[in-house]
Every structure is written in structure tokens, then in C-alpha cells.
Amino acid sequence: MTDPILALKGVTRRYRTGGGFFSKETITTAVDDVSLTVAPGEVCAIVGESGSGKSTLARIAAGFDLPDGGAALFRGAPYARPGSAAWRRERAVVQFVFQNPSGALDPRASIASQIGEMLTTHERCDPATRAARIDDILDRVGLAGMGRRVPQQMSGGQLQRAVLARALVVRPELLICDEAVSALDVSVQAQILNLLMSLKDEFGLTMIFITHDLGVARHVGDRIAVMQKGRIVENRRTHYLFDSPRAAYTRTLLAAIPAATPAARRAREAAAARETAA
Ligand SMILES: Nc1ncnc2c1ncn2[C@@H]1O[C@H](COP(=O)(O)OP(=O)(O)O)[C@@H](O)[C@H]1O
Ligand SMILES: [Mg+2]
User: pLDDT digit string (tens) for 107-127?
Assistant: First the structure.
């Protein structure tokens, strides 16, 4: 078997809140003993409802946050301490795309200059190469000729394309998308998902794709890990998960998608037949 790009081993992360003069301290276990490996070129979707620990896990998987217990290994080695020089060098190989693209971009700077800044932070390149790399990546995300625009002059879908361009210009090895399409209209969602899938093939990307939407996870994921209350309750290849879900919680999620499984489809047909007969 090929070595995984990312391996999480028994990762746990707790948050302490309160504990001041007026409130009792509470401890939330946001991620609870999670183990997960992501192979090169694989898209691992992580699904779960809000508060299940997906974003906390994403930050640990990206090396932005350290676990309280267990380990996050990137290509077999733990991430450097956040903020250190070694950690800053690591930032290029793991890129992050969040839900809200306008919050991720500087409203005053052109898209091209923000992509260029990412490039010069992580690589030495002469002005001509830099300009060519910016043009090339804008072209690949479908924003050819729009580099001079500022965020205000672009739609939500275009902004998320710009964020993707900025993440991919440094040719990362792992791309982590946390609810990257959740804020977009359904039709724009589909465009961005299709773009992501073609970029994935083109760049040979490995991806962790986080979503609360099992339909979206099915569209992009080679594998789906289902999270509930900080734990992964099921983690299997997408078609197995849909054909024969094992965890009760996965079945609940599947039942919420109209006719997602053969069983759900039969149940729906049976209900329709009863209605016709009545
Ligand atoms: N910075 C934080 N401080 C305290 N609690 C947090 C913090 N971030 C997340 N949590 C809590 O951890 C749990 C998991 O949150 P999160 O990882 O954001 O889940 P998700 O992304 O699935 O919605 C939630 O109960 C949330 O309230
Ligand atoms: Mg989240």
C-alpha cells in the first residue's frame, strides 16, 4: 500500500470554556479519538451535522491546531509547532478553503495581486514567471482576464474560484475544503464542485472535503467519513456507504436524502403505491 499523505491517530481535542468568576468551567470534547488516513490522490469527504467537530478536525488535519491527544502526521511526520519557521514553510503544501470566500480575501486588493502574494510568500520566482503563473491559474479556474478585479466586482461563485486559484497556485499536496460550497446557490455549487473535481485530476490533488450535506459528499468523495459528536462512526468507500450503511447514524442521514439508497427508493415506491391504492 502507498504511504498516506495524512494520518490522524487517535486525535482528541477539547475546548475549555467559562471558568471565570460568573460561570462554571465546561469542557467540550470537540474531537474524540479520531483515526483517519488519506491516501495520495484520494478525496475523503467528512460529513456530519453542525457541531459534530468537523472544523476542529480540519484545523488539526491542516496543522493549524494541535491535538490534546493523539497525533496528526503529514507524510509520516508530525506538523511543526504553529507559528514556528518550519510551520510557515509547511503552509504551502497544505491549503485550506473555507465557506465564506469574501471573508478570505482582502476587499481592497485585486485578485491577481492576492494570488501573487501567496506565490511570493512561498516561492522565489521572477516577475515574468509570477505573472505567467497567475494568468495560468486564473485561466484554469475559469477567471481568465479577471485578475484586475477586486472582490466587490465579483459574484460569490467567482470569489470562491479566486480563493481556489490562490490556494492552488502554490501547488499544494493536500487541499482541505471546509464547507467550501455551502454558502453558494445550488446551481453555483454544482459548478464549483465540478471545477474542483477537474482540478483534482489535473493537479493530482489529495483532498479532504468537509460538508454537512451527504449529497455533496457523495458527489465528490471517494470515501466518506461520517462524524457524530466528535467521533467517526463510519468510514468507507462512497458506494459501499450508500449501498449498505452500517452505523445507525449514517442510516438516519441517508434517510434524509430523498431516495439515496435502494432501500429508501423501494420504501418511497411502496408508499407511493399505497397512496395510489387508497
Ligand atoms: N474555539 C472554540 N472554543 C470553544 N468551543 C469550541 C470552539 N470551536 C468549536 N467549539 C465547540 O466544539 C464543537 C465542535 O465544533 P466544530 O468543530 O466547529 O464543529 P462543526 O464544524 O462540525 O460544526 C462544538 O460543540 C463547538 O461549540
Ligand atoms: Mg464547521
Answer: 999 999 999 999 998 888 899
Q: What percent of the chain has pLDDT over 70?
A: 94
How many domains, in total, are found in the chain?
A: 1
Domain that holds residue 245: 1-43+57-79+201-278
Asked whether residue 68 is domain-assigned, the answer is yes
Pair 39, 206: CB distance under 8 Å: yes
In whole angstroms, what separates CA 212 from the centre of its chain?
11
Atom 13 in ligand 1: residue holding the nearest Cα: 30
Residue percentage of the chain with pLDDT more than 90? 74
pLDDT in tens, 238-259: 999 999 999 999 999 888 876 6
Q: Is residue 19 within 6 Å of ligand 1 at its C-beta? A: no
DSSP string, 3-67: PPSEEEEEEEEEEEE--SSSS--EEEEEEEEEEEEE-TT-EEEEE--TTSSHHHHHHHHHTSS--
For the Cβ of 34 lying below 6 angstroms from any atom of ligand 1, the answer is no
Is 207 in contact with 223 (CB distance < 8 Å)? Answer: no
Residue 272 pLDDT > 80: no
Look up the CATH number of the domain holding residue 210. Answer: 3.40.50.300
Q: Is the CB of residue 30 below 6 angstroms from any atom belonging to ligand 1?
A: yes
